[in-house]
Specification:
Pfam families: DUF4142. It comes from Streptomyces griseochromogenes. A two-stranded antiparallel sheet has the order 1-2. It has a domain of 156 residues: Ferritin. The protein is mainly alpha-helical. Helix 2 runs antiparallel to helix 3, helix 3 runs antiparallel to helix 6 and helix 5 packs antiparallel against helix 6. The longest helix is centred in the middle third of the chain and has 29 residues. The N and C termini lie far apart (36 Å).
């Protein structure tokens, strides 16, 4: 890729590209006891920012369906829309159960990705699309695994299972485009520039604003988590039913 792409990545990249970055001072701190297990700051941030991921990747998938010039890019775009609609359904279902307020727009950094891809066209769009999204998903893969391996909350664990499958699928379809520059992508994943927390954090919605819903495509193949099955008990969360957690904006 050319210098322009390198500048784009340098300006926009940071380690947790789906928005799951550790912006709290103590992600392991328990903020609430719930009937599905203790909820930590890291758990709460994960739910909020998986939601934020869909708020930029879902529209990017829609853009890709319109602008993509190769079969690989169009197929990858379908996977973005399909996968994030299902993740969004899960997030919107478990968030009120845990008293977590979800954002309605992505972080400024994530919105920057959308702006970049909206301004692209032709082969440049295809290249930027594949490389930005391969980088973002590659960056978050280990973070999803860490949440899955450490959370004691069964609802968060179920979301992490779904996110893990979705991220791996999206990594795979981006690679199948044949457009990924692995040397540069891996470099950007492992040595990203620092950005202020305000650029990494999706803002809370204004009071009373209707919740944005990412609608599944008519031919959806991804399924949200069966939360009703988990909610019937503590799901192995290891905690007895307790008071509801206090509302939070993540």
């Amino acid at each position: 890729m050319g210098g322009a792409m390198a500048l784009t990545l340098a300006a926009l990249a940071y380690p947790s590209m789906l928005g799951v970055s550790t912006v709290s001072s103590s992600p392991s701190r328990v903020i609430a006891q719930t009937q599905w297990g203790p909820l930590t700051e890291g758990d709460r941030d994960f739910v909020v920012k998986v939601r934020a991921a869909g708020l930029w990747e879902y529209p990017v998938g829609q853009i890709g369906l319109q602008k993509g010039t190769t079969k690989g890019v169009i197929e990858a775009s379908k996977h973005l829309v399909d996968g994030h609609a299902a993740l969004d359904t899960t997030c919107r279902k478990i968030a009120p159960m845990l008293n977590i307020t979800l954002p309605n727009i992505a972080s400024p950094q994530q919105e920057g990705f959308v702006t970049t891809l909206k301004s692209d066209s032709g082969k440049k769009f295809d290249s930027d699309f594949a490389n930005i999204l391969r980088m973002t998903h590659g960056s978050i893969f280990n973070t999803v695994a860490k949440i899955r391996s450490t959370t004691k909350n069964s609802l968060v664990r179920a979301l992490a299972d779904q996110a893990n499958d979705t991220v791996l699928d999206h990594i795979t379809v981006m690679e199948k485009t044949g457009l990924v520059d692995f040397d540069q992508t891996i470099f950007q994943q492992t040595t990203p520039p620092k950005l202020p927390a305000s650029d990494q954090t999706p803002p809370p919605p204004p009071a009373g604003q209707p919740q944005v819903v990412l609608t599944p495509p008519p031919n959806a193949t991804s399924k949200p988590v069966d939360i009703d099955g988990i909610a019937g008990g503590n799901g192995g969360g290891g905690a007895s039913p307790g008071p509801s957690p206090s509302p939070t904006v993540g």
